[in-house]
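#lab-general

N.A. 3:47 PM
ok so I finally got the sequence cleaned up, no stray characters, all 140 residues accounted for. can someone with queue access submit it? mine expired

B.Y. 3:52 PM
send it over

N.A. 3:53 PM
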Amino acid sequence: MNRWPGAAIPSPVYGDVMDPSWIECRRSDGERLGWIRMVGEDFVAINALGREISGRVDWLEAEERLERLGLGYLADPWVLSHADGRQTRVRITEVSSEGVRVVEDALGSASVVGSRAAVHQLPFPAPEALQPADRTAGSQ
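B.Y. 4:20 PM
back already:
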């Protein structure tokens, strides 16, 4: 884990929506946990989905927030809200600064070998239409 902003390696993929000033934050095994963005003399932690997970904090606090969050949340069930009001249970299958791919997961079908579940390609940062299933449980 990089401990100082100057020692961090910026992400090589910027696209049109990712700010190239974001500083990658990686686990000791090299997996990217997210980024840290400088705001004045403070920092903001940004998770792997491109969402802010802290307010303005010091560097160590931003890094610790990302470490505590980890990546396990990406394996949890999620809900994708569609423009027509439908909500679909999905699993995240790929996350990068180029986009987020999810697969529909009705009754756990995403884990069935050979399933042909619908795949949705979402932009990065992930849109608000993608929310953890436990947060939307009361609205389904």
